[in-house]
Write a structure and sequence with these properties.
Strand content: 15-25%
Oligomer: single chain
Number of strands: 4
Radius of gyration: 41 Å
């Protein structure tokens, strides 16, 4: 079949076997024990790594599951909101009427007029009541403060403010 290989052309396995046969039985035992120690070390190292990863994953998995649940709830909410029709923007006259009614019901001494940039608020009121009213009209009607000047006048403040009309959705 094929010609016998010379020592220079021998395969690495053949050379390894020849080297193994050339060493004494005592050296073979020492090499086998060293290989066993290295093998046991590799196995123990792998087991330790595996145990540490199991512990890490045991802590990370509940957090990941909770995050997945939040994402799924958010996706459901997004789908629900997309299915709803867009809210209609109230007319300026309706916003003006709602703001005036709200200010009167809170006892604020302010006048509100519609202008090109939004609703102009002028007058005097208690600071705390004014801030509460501004928060309510922002929450309920979407009117937000663009500009506001306040001046203290005793127990009341004089207000000159511009409230922005919410943009169309």
């Amino acid at each position: 079949m094929s010609a016998p290989q010379t020592a220079g052309q021998a395969s690495p396995l053949t050379r390894l076997l020849q080297s193994w046969q050339a060493i004494s039985p005592r050296e073979r035992k020492l090499l086998l024990m060293a290989a066993a120690v290295v093998g046991v070390g590799i196995v123990l190292s792998t087991l330790d790594w595996s145990r540490n990863e199991r512990i890490r994953l045991g802590r990370a998995l509940p957090r990941a599951e909770a995050q997945l649940e939040r994402v799924q709830e958010s996706a459901t909410e997004i789908t629900r909101l997309r299915a709803q029709p867009a809210p209609q923007r109230p007319a300026v006259a309706a916003l003006l009427d709602m703001a005036q009614t709200s200010a009167r019901s809170r006892g604020l001494g302010v006048s509100i007029q519609a202008g090109g940039e939004g609703l102009h608020v002028k007058g005097q009121a208690s600071f705390d009541e004014l801030v509460a009213w501004l928060a309510a009209v922002q929450h309920d009607q979407g009117l937000r403060v663009l500009r506001m000047e306040l001046q203290q006048q005793g127990a009341l403040v004089s207000v000159d403010a511009l409230l922005a009309i919410p943009a169309a959705p």
